[in-house]
Amino acid sequence: MNPIVSIIIPSYNYGFVIGETLRNIQDQSFQNWEAIIVDDGSRDNTAAVVRQFVDTDARIRFFPQENKGVSAARNLGFQKANGKYIQFLDADDLLSRDKLTLQVDFLERNPDTDISYTDHIYFETNKPDIHYPDYEMNHHNWLPKIDARGYEVVNVLIYSNIAVVSSPLLRREIVEKVNGFPEYSNYTEDWEFWFLCAVNGARYTFLNHPDALTMIRIHQRNTSRNIQIMQAGELKYRKRIVANVQQSAFLSGEEKERLLAKNEASTHKLYKYMMYHANLASPEQLRTMYGLTSFKTFVSFYFKALNYKRKALFKKSR
Fold first, then answer.
1. What residue spans in the chain does CATH classification 3.90.550.10 cover?
2. pTM of the full predicted structure?
3. Helix 253-276, helix 151-159: angle, nearest 10
4. Of the options 3.40.190.10, 3.90.550.10, 3.40.50.920, 3.90.79.10, the CATH number for the domain spanning 5-222
5. C-alpha span between 71 and 231 (Å, rounded)
6. From residue 141, how far is each of 54, 116, 145, 211, 251 by CA, in Å?
7. Residues of the chain below pLDDT 50
8. pLDDT, position 180
9. Is 209 left (phi over 0), alpha (psi -120 to 50) or beta?
10. Do the beta carbons of residue 236 and residue 186 sit within 8 Å?
11. pLDDT, tens digit, for every residue of 133-165?
């Protein structure tokens, strides 16, 4: 049996690297794949680069759309996919040569696993042979390595993401079950997608093999996001966690209570950090913080933050 793997690649102005990504796919030891590139309204040469590959390799297909965001692009790619297995891949990232071979083999032999995920490395474009286990290049491997479903997986995802988007290989049924990526999510779409899979009963299994890796490129395009905007996106996502946990049929009442308490604590901690580091003289930042919580919570943390900043200023003046 040789199942098809659908590799779904959203691209927005990545014409400068997408050719390398497509050559990387063509070099995979597993060859029964289709690559679906969704151009999310690029204004560069993405279309010209990709069409050169489309003209010479029937496995590669190209679908342009107006700019709707990465989640919408992935969802369109999934609608066009024919594969038994789904590999999401950002247009600037790469896969180790045997990643698909090893993961397909694992999923074929382990029908109880819905999502096989692997380790990752980060690399800089101008230094491709130097690898890091984390985005900040601090030599800290943040990846949780589990084999579980239900509470254990959801408990991990309450605190943080479980994998970069190109690490997992998924059975198409789980993508269908959660209706793809959440198009309403900003900056947390990958994390929220894995969470939705988990509360819908997906079994995650880490494949511990040195030849199964995804390689994440570090460059200026993906380091320029405003940290406060990303944190605001996380707070909005944490509000949605409540409904998703409550509606899950794969969690007991006691498990739901524990998870919701942990989510509330994480929400409180993040909001406190954001308020304490906000510019309280900025109406724009205050409007943002006000929109993320209740009036009572906003006022309480506003005065706590003022007191925190007052104490910090006093310490500096001594």
1. 5-222
2. 0.91
3. 10
4. 3.90.550.10
5. 19
6. 37, 18, 11, 17, 29
7. 223-224
8. 97
9. beta
10. yes
11. 655 566 667 788 999 999 999 999 999 999 999
